[in-house]
Amino acid sequence: MVFNGCFSAPDGLNTRLIGGFQEPFYRPAGIDSQETHQVEFTLDYAASALHEAAHWCVAGAERRLQPDYGYWYAPDGRSAEQQAEFERVEVKPQALEWIFSVACGLKFRVSADNLDAGLGPSERFKRDVWQQAQRFCVEGANSRATRFARALASAFARPDPLQAERYRLEDLA
Question: Which of 44, 109, 165, 167 is 20 to 30 A off residue 35, Cα-Cα?
Answer without folding.
Answer: 44
